[in-house]
Amino acid sequence: MMAVFALVFKRLWTQRLTLLVMIVFPFIIILIPQMTDGAPTGPFGLFGLVLMFSSFLISKQVIEDRQLRTVVRIAASPISHRDYLMGHLLGYALLVTVQVLVFTGLALMRYDVGFEFYRLALPLLWTFGLMTITLALFWHTFFKTFATSLSLFSVGANIMAVVSGMTFPLSLLPDRLKQIAVVLPTYWFAYGLENAQEQAVVTVLLSLAILTAFGIIFITIGSRRSYE
Questions:
Q1: How many C-beta neighbours within 10 Å does residue 72 have?
Q2: 11-67 pLDDT, tens per residue?
Q3: 3-state per-residue secondary structure call for 37-79
Q4: What is the pTM of this model?
Q5: CA 50 to CA 45: how far, in whole Å?
Q6: CA–CA separation, 149 vs 119, rounded Å?
Q7: Cα–Cα distance between 147 and 93 in angstroms, integer?
C-alpha cells in the first residue's frame, strides 16, 4: 500500500493544472460576497462542490490504469485491489486535507463569526472531503475512459449539489425533494453545515457519522470490484 502511496504522489506531480486549480478555487470562493448574515454556510457549501470535483480530477489515475491495463498487472502482483485503492485514498486524502485547511484559514480571516462554528464545520468539511475521494474511487471503477466518467459525474454531482441544498439553503427546498435528497451524502453535508451554524452538536455528529458510513460503503464496494 505504501508503494502505491508513493507512486500516487509522483503521478500527481504531472497533474500540475489540477493542483493549481485546487489551490486557486478556495481563494475564488472566499471572494464571493456572502448572501446572508451569520455563518458562511453558503461558501462552505460551494467549497464542498469544489471538493467533489477536486477528488474526481486527482483520482483520474484510476481510469488511466484501467485504460492502460495496469490493473491487470497489479492483479498478478502481491498488491491487492484493496491495497491499490487504499494507497490512492491516502495520497488523495493528504491533498484534500491541505485544501480544506487552506480554505478554512481563509474563511477565518474573511468572515467575522465565532470560533464555535468552525470547530464543528472543519471536521464536517474534512470528513466530507474524504467521503468525496471514496466516492470518486468508487465511481471510476465503473468506467474505462475518463471522458465517459467525467461527463456523467459532472451531471450527477451538480444535480446532487442542487437537490441537497449545497448551493442554497435547505429551507428553500420542497419537502418532497428533501425526502428524496436524504439518501444522498451531499444532503448530510449541507444539513450538518446548517446545524453547525445553530451549534446543534449532536446533529452535526450524526451528519459526521452518516458521511463516514457513506465513505466506508463506497471504499468497500470499490475494493471488491474486479479487474477489467
A1: 12
A2: 777 777 888 888 888 899 988 877 666 667 788 989 999 999 999 988 888 777 776
A3: CCCCHHHHHHHHHHHHHHHHHHCHHHHHHHHCCHHHHHHCCCC
A4: 0.86
A5: 9
A6: 35
A7: 23
Q: How far is CA 146 from CA 5, 19, 70, 221, 223, in A?
A: 21, 18, 15, 20, 19
What grid cell was written down for 19? Answer: 493542483
pLDDT for 77 equals 61
Show the cell assigned to 143. Answer: 468506467
Q: What is the DSSP string of the chain?
A: -HHHHHHHHHHHTT-HHHHHHHHHHHHHHHHSPPSSSSS-HHHHHHHHHHHHHHHHHHTHHHHHHHHTTHHHHHHTSS--HHHHHHHHHHHHHHHHHHHHHHHHHHHHHH----HHHHHHHHHHHHHHHHHHHHHHHHHHTT-S-HHHHHHHHHHHHHHHHHHHTSSS-GGGS-HHHHHHHTTSHHHHHHHHHHHHHTT-HHHHHHHHHHHHHHHHHHHHHHHTPPP-
* Cα end-to-end span (Å), the chain: 20
Grid cell listed for 52: 467533489
